[in-house]
Amino acid sequence: MAPRKRPEAQKTPSAVMRLRSKSSPQELEPEAKKLRVKGSGSSRRYDSGCLWAGLASLQVPPPCSSIVRALHQHKLGKAAWPSLQQGLQQSFLHSLASYRIFQKAAPFDRRATSLAWHPTHPSTLAVGSKGGDIMLWNFGIKEKPTFIKGIGAGGSITALKFNLLNTNQFFASSMEGTTRLQDFKGNTLRVFTSSDTCNVWFCSLDVSANSRVVVTGDNVGHVILLNTDGKELWNLRMHKKKVTHLALNPCCDWLLATASVDQTVKIWDLRQIRGKASFLYSLPHRHPVNSACFSPDGARLLTTDQKSEIRVYSASQWDHPLGLIPHPHRHFQHLTPIKATWHPRYNLIVVGRYPDPNFKSCAPYELRTIDVFDGSSGKMMCQLYDPESSGIISLNEFNPMGDTLASAMGYHILVWSQEEADEK
Fold it and tell me: What are the ranges of the WD repeats (predicted)?
């Protein structure tokens, strides 16, 4: 059953930092359905509260003083690179208070299920839907987005990745039973995997441009490794149940993390795969796992379960969590699974909140915010919220530049950016 919508009238004023609005919404017409792109009102909630008891609150200094001081000390040799990086991160956190939704789109007749940023165009986004539709949207221009029509029911796009060897192409896995390479015109260039039965479909995907391999996982626990020419290297059942997420380490692309609803995350060395028992580490969880993704430097692993835990693991000891963040994001059948992701430049974690009355710290009429945590301390650093977009936000991804956030909320795609940038 779909969750009840919380009454807006009963939200406390303290939950909203400030409200801004803009007028004259724009409208676009994609192929399948009207695409609305508009400026909208927004508000921010900054919460310095900590979900880990006993941690001291972090004071975020004004951006100029932190950056200038850190740069000056680094130049004089008095500050190490980590200190400078921390100053830049604090400055970015300070700017998050002015982030708001400046573009909004509703192109699909079913909910959004996956999204990916273009690797070289910071304002271009690919979004897939439960009906198999894919939208390629450059929200920096006024031209109509590219819309690739799916098959409808049963065609859900479960993962999207741009092809780094040709950025006019992208990889997609789907419930249609294929993992394929397509171009922007919707042409299928290569089918990597195809199931012979409607009972098997593909739920996860990752690609390494350096090693030229594609890895994909299905709903019965198999993981398949292929080269980019389509040759299958191996096909093994690595989990007992659905493989919900796959991630190749960005710095050591022979290191693979797999997440499953069998309540485990496993880490593998692709050079030493001998069978289902040849994993390097098995990380047991208390609930099924939605995702496992490596940090941009490859040194940490972030996992999201289907109930109330976000975990951070470190390369120094993969089999023991470095930290555990209690966080409400429970799962149900008609909700795109909530997945926490890393910021591409800073040690920050971003994830959508789905308030749970059974969660220990749940407050009355708690908002469905986007939460930003410090990846080292697990401390809540900031929350983003727009009263006009108060649904459950399942997916959140910062673009490669790290200055724009894309979110998937049911049928809607939201793009967040700093107010000053939008006004320019």
Answer: 236-271
